[in-house]
């Protein structure tokens, strides 16, 4: 099971629990690995023993260290970063579709075409302004890329579902 | 001895400290609790609790009429202001006197005399205490500035009269520098502080901040408890203090000189209760008066450790006009060396306050370590209060032993969930110059220990925390 | 003596090993090659480590037709049992594609029904991992009967315990009805598909050529048909989403509510959203910005994200209190209500109502989407479903009108008259029957008659401005008590938290009846 540690600046570290071995009612062994770009690294076995109501940890079942008692911490302090612990999931943020075609969502009129063919554009950059439903709608790119073709003209009245522009994805 | 009721007009670790001193003397300690710090740990040590309504420091700890009203209601005999808040507020001390409440601190006249930077300098001069040489008042022309600079010797500092916080000042090493900077600093001062007047002051290169602890009773006896060096500072706030000063070292003559100078000044203002005289000392071992703090200070524990005298208890005794039990100055001896590190809730690299919540607190100290703190698991450190959450004090027979114990103590102090400066302190405690005792107030800006902190992701510790979470989930 | 005992022990251990193999090593390998986990691996990844307890591991089928008795798999193609997600007990069944393609037979269905009964009786959520080729033809009507038993239990548990379906392989024909009834459907890109009749049958009957992925893949069902609420890139992400969902929904309908731990202070200002709602009512803005600033840790778990983008539904927490959030999205389709949006929101509201989750509604709706497509599609029926859902809801309802609330859509979006508990508005709110332009044309028709050109424009502009000053503000509604308060954007989070605390013990009841007649 995977745990994500994410801080305020969206830096994240991913830890996988690879194996759990219960040795007795007082001793459990966990095998953790760091996950970086789909590769495992820093694999380590951690033994946890319960002694006198406290948790002690060890890497070799011989040398033990007491853990500062925290109930079920949801934050982890690493020097100057406070990371939130998400056990088993990464909080869904602003995901998004990955195709670069801009299609009209409803009938409207093209007010202004802001981008040109060949322009380098970034995600959420406004490319076309459409007036529809008495609103000026900024149609934004949903990917980073280059404007490939523009299929409409300013002032043109459009129906719903018309492809207006295509953006070719590019990092 | 009659039992007195003492109100502690403060919070946090100093309130705890004072409460324990009160209990020791058999007096009743009354602690304040506020709406915005409901789980204050200092109340644990207070015999009685009194509620001060309000949503901010201004409405509670700084609210003079509010505190006096509560004091009258609860038949308080004395108020101990701690440090910060109202401790150096002359009018508060006066109001207490008027209400017939003993103010556990110096008399209002002494507070007034030493409170103002200008008047305190006058007193110092009159008492024969060396002050930082410079112009007496504002300097109007470049020529005048150059004349004074030649008299006192370069390097000098062109300083705004109304300035502060390190702004509105420029260093000048030669006449040319003065000619270059005079107008500029004047303009800067006018813009920042509304007053373009400048004064000339000797610039002490690599200054050491050395202060002397003073304790006086109401019968005119003034004692000094040797000095402390507090040169490790960031943003003009001390983070590591030592007693005695490693810079003065074995120079007993210099030590005697500076301590007796401090006593002289205290006597000159009819001082009573505890206080500290702060000096600035250059590499040439010449010292100059900086200011006097007419209150008990954060770093008093290290003086207590090397002299074995409980300063807070003495303060309380002195306030009630009792005898301190100190026969003479010679009776006060110092042994060994003590170091204090201030543990603050701040980012160890930017050194800016970082409020947060303590999710775990564990200590594993070497023998004889003292940790004055108000920490507990679940404590919410808010921006309302000072970021300092505790003081770690170690003592050794010699400086090296004290350093060794401090290193071990820092390794054994675990605070989880709240950003703190322990990594920074660890770096300093391992750093060569600090260990040799060769440092001045320019330590942090020049050595930059905060940049040496390893911020790599400590995956081993993360694994351990994760293991404890999984174990608890499994019901181990 | 001990030998006999030892033998018996070894037999059990051997049977356990066999059961774990499912359909055999080869088939397991094939499953992995397709980028799919086996049934047991899925359960391991989904649940907390070491908490899964299996039921009915040794059940086999009892069919004697077509020589089936020669071939029996322990477990009969499905793994059922109970485990924990983040400490919360859940019941789970996972179909095993390695055993006859996960086809459902009588025993297989009996196992699933047993675990569903267990979940219902013990009030714990049930998660179904579907990966099945369909009914087992050899078992005949018994397979169909098995399906129906499952469907009955889906309906019996609906609204009592949360039912989650993860589609991680084929799910076709009659089998799709079970996930369809459940509360949330998760689909995985490229490896999962759902349809009633497959591409082959479609080709022969209507001569349309379409691939499995296009007909019923994750993309189709999350964007076009709206059948699936979640679309995941791979199985790992799917498990993570399910776990994230479980931090927001309660384990059963009358469970004691728990708080969601957070360190985000409740009384912080929302100065970030002070100017999010633009001054020009024609300019759109992203409603998500407001949502992100209100919820704890900016953690908003959006449900049904790719379908009906003009309305946003999702879960969040405010000061630890878990809430459902429904909001119009002015950046998509101007935030109008249409058939898809109404259906999406209505189902979401009814789930929240069934499981006692307070609902916060953020309103910025110019009206319903006009057009023949909508009218012929039945916007009358479907639009009023959302109205029904809000009116029927007895959970705490807090409504905040950020900008527009015109016409019938004002009524539908949890207005005071549908017994929403708290109705708030920003100073930028405009609550009226219709927009200024349209209104002026109708109300002041006489005044504008006969005017032309510049004079017409001037008079119209003047009338529009008067109308806007009079009506395009929240105070008309406030004067009538239809709003409880007009608040500043900076105060939003604090106020919502205060109201939620006050509404904690809300209790109202609707008149006794078997059930209403919602216009399906």
Write a structural description:
The complex is a heterotrimer of chains A (171), B (476) and C (520). With 171 residues, chain A is an all-beta fold. Chain A folds into two domains: 2-87, Nuclear Transport Factor 2, Chain: A (Roll); 101-169, RNA polymerase II/Efflux pump adaptor protein, barrel-sandwich hybrid domain (OB fold (Dihydrolipoamide Acetyltransferase, E2P), Beta Barrel). Chain A is built from no helices and 16 strands. In chain A, a hairpin with a 2-residue loop joins strand 12 (126-132) and strand 13 (135-140). Chain A is rod-shaped, with a radius of gyration of 26 Å. Chain B is α+β, with helices and mostly antiparallel strands. Chain B folds into three domains: 5-104, Rossmann fold (3-Layer(aba) Sandwich); 142-202, Dna Ligase, domain 1, CATH 3.30.1490; 208-452, ATP-grasp fold, B domain (D-amino Acid Aminotransferase, Chain A, domain 1). Chain B is built from 15 helices and 20 strands. In chain B, the strands form five sheets. In chain B, strands 13-12-9-10-11-14-19-17 form an eight-stranded antiparallel β-sheet, sandwiched between helices. A five-stranded parallel β-sheet of chain B has the order 3-2-1-4-5. In chain B, a hairpin with a 5-residue loop joins strand 9 and strand 10. Chain B is globular. Chain C has 20 helices and 17 strands. Chain C has helices spanning 2-21, 25-33, 39-46, 106-121, 141-157, 177-181, 199-206, 212-216, 218-224, 235-246, 287-294, 339-354, 372-377, 379-392, 407-412, 436-443, 445-448, 453-471, 475-479, 492-502, and strands at 53-55, 78-85, 88-95, 126-130, 163-167, 170-172, 184-188, 193-195, 230-232, 301-303, 311-318, 321-328, 359-365, 397-406, 422-425, 430-432, 485-486. In chain C, the strands form three sheets. In chain C, strands 10, 11, 12, 13, 14, 15, 16 and 17 form an eight-stranded mixed β-sheet that branches. Chain C has a seven-stranded mixed β-sheet with strand order 1-2-3-4-5-7-9, with helices on both faces. In chain C, strands 6-8 form a two-stranded parallel sheet. In chain C, helix 4 (106-121) packs parallel to helix 5, helix 12 runs parallel beside helix 14 and helix 16 crosses helix 18 (453-471). The radius of gyration of chain C is 27 Å and the shape is elongated. The termini of chain C are far apart. Chains in contact: A-B, A-C, B-C. Chains A and C meet through strand 2, strand 8 and strand 13 of A and helix 10 of C.
């Amino acid at each position: 099971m995977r745990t994500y540690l994410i801080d305020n600046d969206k830096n994240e570290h991913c830890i996988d629990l690879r194996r759990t071995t219960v040795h007795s009612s007082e001793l459990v062994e966990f095998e953790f690995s760091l996950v970086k770009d789909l590769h495992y690294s820093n694999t380590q076995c951690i033994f946890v023993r319960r002694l006198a109501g406290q948790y002690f940890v060890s890497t070799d079942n011989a040398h033990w260290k007491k853990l500062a008692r925290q109930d079920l911490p949801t934050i982890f302090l690493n020097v100057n970063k406070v990371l939130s612990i998400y056990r088993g999931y990464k909080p869904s943020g602003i995901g998004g579709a990955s195709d670069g075609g801009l299609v009209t969502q409803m009938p409207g009129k093209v007010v202004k075409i802001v981008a040109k063919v060949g322009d380098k554009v970034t995600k959420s950059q406004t490319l076309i302004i459409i007036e529809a439903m008495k609103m000026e709608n900024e149609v934004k790119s949903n990917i980073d890329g280059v404007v490939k073709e523009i299929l409409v003209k300013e002032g043109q009245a459009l129906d719903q579902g018309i492809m207006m522009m295509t953006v070719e994805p590019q990092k | 001895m009659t039992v007195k009721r003492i109100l502690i007009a403060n919070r946090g670790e100093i309130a705890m400290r004072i409460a324990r001193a009160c209990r020791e003397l058999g007096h009743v300690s009354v602690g304040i609790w506020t709406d915005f710090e409901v789980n204050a740990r200092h109340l644990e040590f207070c015999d009685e609790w009194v509620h001060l309504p309000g949503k901010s420091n201004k409405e509670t700890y700084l609210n003079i009429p509010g505190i006096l009203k509560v004091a009258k209601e609860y038949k308080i005999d004395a108020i101990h202001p701690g440090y910060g808040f109202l401790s150096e507020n002359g009018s508060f001390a006066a109001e207490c006197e008027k209400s017939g409440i003993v103010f556990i601190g110096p008399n209002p006249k002494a507070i007034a005399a030493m409170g103002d930077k200008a008047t305190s300098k006058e007193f110092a001069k009159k008492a024969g205490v060396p002050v930082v040489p410079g112009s007496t008042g504002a300097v109007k022309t470049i020529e005048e500035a150059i004349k004074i600079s030649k008299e006192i010797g370069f390097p000098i500092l062109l300083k705004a009269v109304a300035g502060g916080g390190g702004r509105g000042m420029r260093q000048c090493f030669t006449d040319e520098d003065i000619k270059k900077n005079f107008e500029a600093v004047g303009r800067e001062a006018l813009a920042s502080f509304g007053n373009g007047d400048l004064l000339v002051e000797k610039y002490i290169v690599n200054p050491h901040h050395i202060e002397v602890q003073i304790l006086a009773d109401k019968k005119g006896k003034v004692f000094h408890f040797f000095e402390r060096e507090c040169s490790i500072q960031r943003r003009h706030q001390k983070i590591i203090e030592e007693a005695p000063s490693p810079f003065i070292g074995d120079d007993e003559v210099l030590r005697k000189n500076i301590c007796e100078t401090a006593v002289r000044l205290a006597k000159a203002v009819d001082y009573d209760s505890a206080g500290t005289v702060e000096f600035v000392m250059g590499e040439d071992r010449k010292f100059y008066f900086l200011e006097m703090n007419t209150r008990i200070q954060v770093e008093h524990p290290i003086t207590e450790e090397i002299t074995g005298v409980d300063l807070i208890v003495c303060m309380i005794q002195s306030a009630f006009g009792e005898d301190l039990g100190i026969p003479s100055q010679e009776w006060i001896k110092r042994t060994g060396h003590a170091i204090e590190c201030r543990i603050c809730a701040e980012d160890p690299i930017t050194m800016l306050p970082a409020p947060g919540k303590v999710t775990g607190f564990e200590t594993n100290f070497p023998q004889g370590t003292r940790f004055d703190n108000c920490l507990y698991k679940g404590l919410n450190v808010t921006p309302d209060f000072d970021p300092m959450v505790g003081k770690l004090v170690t003592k050794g027979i010699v400086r090296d032993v004290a350093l060794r114990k401090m290193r071990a103590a820092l390794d054994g102090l675990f605070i989880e969930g709240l950003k703190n400066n322990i990594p920074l302190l660890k770096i300093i405690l391992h750093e060569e110059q600090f260990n040799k005792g060769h440092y001045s107030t320019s330590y942090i800006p020049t050595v930059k220990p905060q940049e040496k902190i390893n911020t790599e992701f400590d995956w081993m510790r993360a694994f351990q925390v994760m293991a404890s979470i999984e174990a608890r989930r499994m019901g181990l | 003596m001990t030998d006999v005992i030892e033998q018996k022990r070894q037999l059990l251990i051997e049977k356990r090993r066999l059961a774990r193999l499912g359909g055999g090593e080869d088939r397991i390998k094939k499953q992995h090659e397709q980028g799919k986990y086996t049934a047991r691996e899925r359960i391991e990844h989904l649940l907390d480590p070491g908490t899964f307890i299996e039921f009915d591991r040794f059940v086999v089928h009892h069919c004697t037709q077509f020589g089936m008795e020669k071939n029996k798999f322990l477990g009969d193609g499905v793994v059922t049992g109970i485990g924990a997600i983040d400490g919360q007990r859940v019941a789970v069944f996972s179909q095993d594609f390695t055993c006859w393609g996960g086809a459902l037979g009588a025993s297989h269905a009996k196992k699933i029904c047993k675990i569903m009964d267990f979940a219902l009786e013990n009030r714990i959520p049930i998660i179904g991992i579907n990966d099945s080729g369909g009914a087992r033809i050899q078992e005949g009507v018994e397979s169909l009967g098995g399906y129906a038993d499952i469907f009955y239990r889906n309906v019996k548990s609906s609204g009592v315990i949360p039912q989650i379906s993860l589609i991680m392989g084929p799910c076709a024909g009659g089998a799709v009805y079970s996930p369809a009834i459940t509360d949330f459907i998760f689909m995985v890109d490229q490896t999962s598909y759902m349809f009633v009749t497959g591409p082959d049958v479609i080709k022969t009957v209507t001569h349309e050529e379409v691939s499995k992925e296009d007909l019923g893949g994750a993309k189709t069902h999350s964007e076009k048909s709206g059948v699936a609420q979640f679309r995941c890139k791979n199985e790992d992400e799917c498990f993570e989403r399910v776990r994230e969902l479980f931090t927001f929904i309660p384990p059963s309908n009358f469970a004691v509510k728990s708080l969601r731990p957070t360190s985000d202070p409740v009384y912080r200002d929302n100065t970030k959203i002070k100017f999010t709602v633009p001054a020009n009512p024609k300019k759109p803005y992203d409603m998500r910005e407001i949502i992100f600033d209100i919820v704890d840790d900016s953690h908003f778990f959006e449900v049904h994200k790719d379908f009906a983008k003009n309305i946003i539904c999702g879960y969040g927490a405010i000061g630890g209190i878990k809430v459902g959030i429904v909001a119009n999205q002015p950046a998509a389709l101007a935030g109008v209500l249409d058939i898809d949006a109404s259906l999406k929101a209505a189902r979401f509201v009814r789930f929240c109502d069934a499981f006692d989750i307070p609902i916060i509604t953020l309103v910025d709706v110019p009206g319903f989407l006009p057009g023949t497509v909508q009218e012929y599609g039945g916007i009358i029926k479907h639009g009023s479903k959302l109205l029904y859902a809000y009116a029927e809801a007895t959970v705490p309802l807090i409504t905040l009108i950020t900008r527009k609330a015109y016409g019938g859509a004002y009524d539908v979006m949890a207005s005071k008259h549908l017994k929403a508990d708290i109705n708030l508005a920003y100073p930028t709110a405009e609550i009226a029957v219709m927009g200024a332009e349209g209104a002026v044309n109708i109300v002041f028709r006489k005044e504008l008659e006969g005017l032309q050109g510049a004079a017409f424009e001037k008079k119209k502009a003047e009338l529009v401005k008067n109308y806007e000053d009079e009506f395009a503000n929240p105070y008309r509604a406030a004067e009538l008590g239809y709003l409880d308060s007009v608040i500043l954007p900076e105060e939003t989070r604090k106020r919502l938290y205060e109201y939620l605390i006050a509404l904690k013990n809300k209790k109202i009841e609707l008149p006794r009846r078997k059930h209403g007649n919602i216009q399906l």
